[in-house]
């Protein structure tokens, strides 16, 4: 009854508990599923300087600047292999990024974007679970796909974007 034997017995107990818990909790299956992390968005006060950091200093592949007037932003994507960074800069006076930068002068993380396989089903279920969605209908995002944003107060302080995969 040495330490190794006790450790093996503990591991067996944990395996038994975790397997019995998962089957007895009857977790309902969703009509939609979360996919991969698509990007992390960073609001930047100087888009050219930020592009230069990722391209010239860090050696990343950086896209051209794209204006998205319906979202009030300029976007630039930094390719990272397994995901992307989205650099956001205000476009127009009503830009949500302009108000973000007023509070965060040097910029900072703005939101995360996670892919979903069925954005309409996700919206229906999230509304039922009292998660606020910041628009009535999905909008077309920077990748030309439908997106919605979830209220940060319902997501532990993080603005979450869901994008149709």
From TrEMBL:
- The membrane-spanning stretches of this chain are none
Q: Which Gene3D superfamilies match?
A: 2,3-Dihydroxybiphenyl 1,2-Dioxygenase, domain 1
What region holds the VOC domain? 36-165
Q: What is its EC number?
A: 5.1.99.1
Which InterPro entries did the record assign? Glyas_Bleomycin-R_OHBP_Dase, MeMalonyl-CoA_epimerase, MMCE/EMCE_epimerase, VOC_core
Pfam families recorded: Glyoxalase_4
Tell me a Gene Ontology molecular-function term this record carries: metal ion binding
Can you list the GO cellular component terms from the UniProt entry? mitochondrion
Keyword set for this entry? Cobalt, Isomerase, Metal-binding
The Swiss-Prot or TrEMBL record describes its family as follows:
Belongs to the methylmalonyl-CoA epimerase family.
Q: What is this protein called?
A: Methylmalonyl-CoA epimerase, mitochondrial
Q: Which organism is it from?
A: Fregata magnificens (Magnificent frigatebird)
The coding gene here is Mcee
């Amino acid at each position: 009854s040495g330490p190794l034997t006790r450790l093996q017995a503990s591991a067996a107990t944990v395996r038994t508990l975790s397997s019995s818990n998962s089957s007895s909790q009857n977790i309902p299956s969703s009509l939609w599923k979360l996919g991969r992390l698509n990007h992390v968005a960073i609001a930047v006060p100087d888009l050219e300087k930020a592009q230069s950091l990722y391209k010239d200093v860090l050696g990343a592949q950086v896209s051209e600047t794209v204006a998205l007037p319906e979202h009030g932003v300029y976007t630039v994507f930094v390719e990272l292999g397994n995901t992307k960074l989205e650099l956001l800069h205000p476009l127009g006076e009503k830009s949500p990024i302009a108000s973000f930068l007023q509070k965060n002068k040097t910029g900072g993380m703005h939101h995360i974007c996670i892919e979903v396989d069925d954005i309409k089903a996700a919206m229906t279920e999230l509304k039922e679970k009292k998660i606020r969605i910041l628009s009535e209908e999905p909008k077309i995002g920077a990748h030309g796909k439908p997106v919605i944003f979830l209220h940060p107060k319902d997501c532990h302080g993080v603005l979450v974007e869901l994008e149709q995969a």
